Amino acid sequence: MDRKFLPGHFRGRNLVKEAKPVAAADTSTLHFVGDEDSSKRRQILDGARKVFMDLGFDGASMNEIARSAGVSKGTLYVYFADKNRLFEAIVEEEVLEQGNVTFNFDPGRDVMTTLREFGQAYIELLCRPGGGSSIRTVMAIAERMPDVGRRFYENVLEKTIGRLAAYLAAHVKPDDLAIDDCRLAASQFMMMCQATLFLPFVFQAAPAPSAERIAQVVESATRMFLAAYRAKGE
Length: 234
Description:
Layout: H1 34-59, H2 62-69, H3 73-79, H4 83-99, H5 111-126, H6 131-141, H7 146-170, H8 182-194, H9 198-202, H10 211-229
Helix pairs in contact: 1-2, 1-4, 1-6, 4-7, 5-8, 5-10, 7-8, 8-10
């Protein structure tokens, strides 16, 4: 297949086997129109996301995904070689969505306000409706597809840890914070914000926490963090 006809996101990636059509040899199902191409891919990803969320990776099939997306199986294979590639594309979208979330880590802002606001925004993102399903699915498939799990961790979780750590490092001074390992401190704060909220949510033992409960937990985490890391001279 000529790669110039593939959607821009796929150029240079071996997502479609060349010279070996997976579906029937009838090429009438191939559509190479830019806007239609993008719309069809979006339609497939939305349908696949629902199937993966409802049935999990192992329970999902290309037949079920095609049915959910409202496309033929032949059209589905034009865009994605198999459900592994389709799942990877969905994870990549999740990575981009969460990776592009901006938290206000302006070094000029005071630490207590910054930690409170970040903690609340972070937990709201982590425990948003639908967010638990994607995380559960990535966790379940990470052993079988380690590259997917690693990319999700590096581009979402580790990147956020790095941003918070850089902010904390800017405040390590005699009258502000006393921290030897800012990445460790950043990870500790993020984990404290998750306490009693994230695990019950992700394991479906409790619904998404309320804004009031999130604020309560984050306030406690902020006070504990500052009790440990506030410079003694302040």
